[in-house]
Design brief:
The protein is an alpha+beta fold. 35% of the residues lie in helices and 21% in strands. The protein contains six helices and five strands. The protein has a five-stranded antiparallel beta sheet with strand order 1-5-4-3-2.
């Protein structure tokens, strides 16, 4: 039964998330994100600030929310610490992401793990006020890009 539920959840997640290959999304954000991915070789092995500058110049994808993904501390090769392995940027803010029916774009930027950044030290310097996104960007600008992709996510409509 657990496997059936896992398979069902994977199906639901896949139905709710459309990548650029499906072509469901259209508009200025999609044009910018397609350009970003088509030029990703210019950003790989470069500082994340180069991606931020690209988005700022294009003015069509505004970072309204951001988060990180981390390594698994229980991995046998791990030292037990959580290290940031990717940055995820969202076109909607936290509250819009959690509203029913809100569609949004996200950019996932995988980081070069040769330059480890501990999760706790990164997030402890992010303020809990309206400046947090700018501080997030400033603090992560020197991270090295390993890969990047984007997706269009269809909000829940039930």
């Amino acid at each position: 039964m657990r496997y059936i539920m896992t398979a069902f959840m994977c199906l639901v997640v896949n139905l709710c998330s459309y990548s650029r290959d499906v072509g469901i999304a259209s508009g200025p954000e999609e044009t910018i994100l397609n350009e970003l991915v088509s030029r990703k070789n210019e950003f790989i092995h470069q500082k994340l600030s180069k991606v931020y500058e690209f988005l700022k110049q294009k003015k069509k994808f505004v970072i309204n929310h951001a988060t990180t993904t981390e390594t698994n501390p229980w991995n046998p090769c791990s030292d037990g610490k959580l290290y940031i392995e990717s940055i995820v940027l969202f076109s909607k803010d936290f509250y819009e992401l959690n509203e029913d029916g809100e569609d949004y774009y996200e950019i996932t930027i995988e980081l070069d793990m040769n330059h480890k950044v501990e999760r706790q030290s990164f997030w402890s310097n992010i303020p809990d006020d309206e400046t947090w996104i700018q501080v997030f960007v400033d603090q992560s600008k020197d991270f090295i890009v390993k890969n990047l992709s984007w997706s269009f996510n269809v909000g829940r409509k039930w």
